Amino acid sequence: MASNVSIPKGTRDFSPAVMRRRQYIFDTIKDVFELYGFGALETPAMENLSTLTGKYGDEGDKLLFRIQNSGEQAANPPEKGLRYDLTVPFARYVVQHHGELTFPFKRYQIQPVWRADRPQKGRYREFYQCDVDVIGTRSLLCEVELIQIVEEVFRRLGIRVVLKMNNRKILAGIAEAVGCSDRIVDLTVALDKLDKIGVDAVKEELAAKGISAEALEVAGDTSRIALTEIGAMGVQEVETILEWCKRLGVTLPIELDFSLARGLNYYTGAIFEVKAADFEIGSICGGGRYDDLTGVFGLPNMSGVGISFGADRIYDVMDGLGLFPAEETGGVRVMLTNLGEAEEQSCMLILNKLRGAGVAAEIYPEAAKMKKQMEYANRRGVPFVAIVGSDELAEGVVTLKNMTTGEQKKVTPDELIHCV
Questions:
Q1: HSE-up of 278 (CA within 13 Å, CB side)?
Q2: Which residues of the chain are under the pLDDT cut of 50?
Q3: Taking the domain 331-419, which CATH number applies?
Q4: Strands 334-336 and 384-387
Q5: What is the residue extent of each domain of the chain?
Q6: 3 state DSSP class of 138
Q7: Model pTM above 0.70
Q8: How many Å apart are CA 338 and CA 92, to the nearest integer?
Q9: pLDDT tens-digit profile of 260-277?
Q10: Residue 59 contacts by C-beta under 8 Å, 6 or more apart in sequence?
Q11: I want to staple 289 with a disulfide (CB 3.0 to 4.6 A). Which of 120, 211, 256, 305 is the partner?
């Protein structure tokens, strides 16, 4: 009897069928990243805690997975942690390898991250991010390019989305307008919860922090935001980005949401968040501009901007809406039967020819009854079965069965390559 084994909450196993679909998402995103001139990068799963802490705000720090060294007593505080996102490790990489890089430096990164969050629908403790960043320039053309990447990725995946945009300078203008510039972090953390807990609860949180609920009114009035110098800068940046999108024919729906905060402390300019239009789930993509993330590692004034695609939530959306292409539901195109020693020898030669022509194929590994082999192919979702029995051996053909329609026909081994 099997033991009672399980995996930690918030993590998942992925079957071969699921992995094919996940790989389809990764490949689609990677192709678009490379189309726009970004190169691949990988960083370690663990970082020094000094690299991670203080970059995500107090709430983010609480969600870090800390690693205790083997053999250390619990009294010794951990010195390492699993990465929370890919942006901070990227900034660390840029500082560490600064002399080797050409700027502006454009990179993409597709790797898992870990957060000690409470697992729920669409929220996992281990999940993949697909990040794309450019660092070493303040040009707003980079923001425009990221919007184009978002449009192209979701166009290829067939997901209708809406991109929400704000600017951290606008949030700073809101804070200044209501006299709480020294509590902008408290303000942004509260505003970031509007969609989750509602207006009344956010007002209560603001009041508890000593911030006027007037901030919510100011967030909807660009004229009041623009009365502050920093707020006016934010409004101007947003207008410039939107004007470029218009010139370039971007059709992606873009909504301005001056309450959008994305609670990460390192954002200083544009902020993006993308949601699926036809499926109820949290954001599936987000990011923004950071002007001095590398400064905390000793390299000041290195501005960058990036976005992150949440592959796991994108999978949930595509699965829920039935958007995966039919060819991504299976791998092997044809299975050859195994009905005896002579038949096996013939099938192995045919199998070699199929694979040589680039056709994904396999043979049932041992001689067995036809019913058993057909059931195996059916459970695997193999679309075609090539049958080689004594009659087929004598004729030098195979009987090809379409497992969807049940149709059967005799073809030569050479013809088989083009039939599957």
A1: 11
A2: none
A3: 3.40.50.800
A4: parallel
A5: 16-321, 331-419
A6: coil
A7: yes
A8: 56
A9: 877 667 789 999 999 999
A10: 189, 263
A11: 305
User: Could you tell me which of 300, 288, 12, 14 has the C-alpha nearest to residue 142?
Assistant: 288
CA distance 388 to 339: 7
For residues 138 and 120, give the distance between their C-alpha atoms in angstroms, rounded to a whole number. 37
Q: How many residues does the chain have?
A: 420
Tokens of 229: 């110098």
How far from 48 is each of 52, 53, 59, 275, CA to CA, in Å?
7, 9, 19, 33
For the structural domain made of 16-321, what CATH number should be given? 3.30.930.10
What span, in angstroms and rounded, lies between the C-alpha atoms of 391 and 393? 5
Burial of 380 (0-12, 13-18, 19+ CB in 10 A): middle
Planar angle of CA 347, 352, 354, nearest 5 degrees: 90
3-state SS class at 162: strand
Give me the pLDDT at residue 55, please: 81
User: Sign (positive/negative) of CA torsion 103, 44, 143, 197?
Assistant: negative
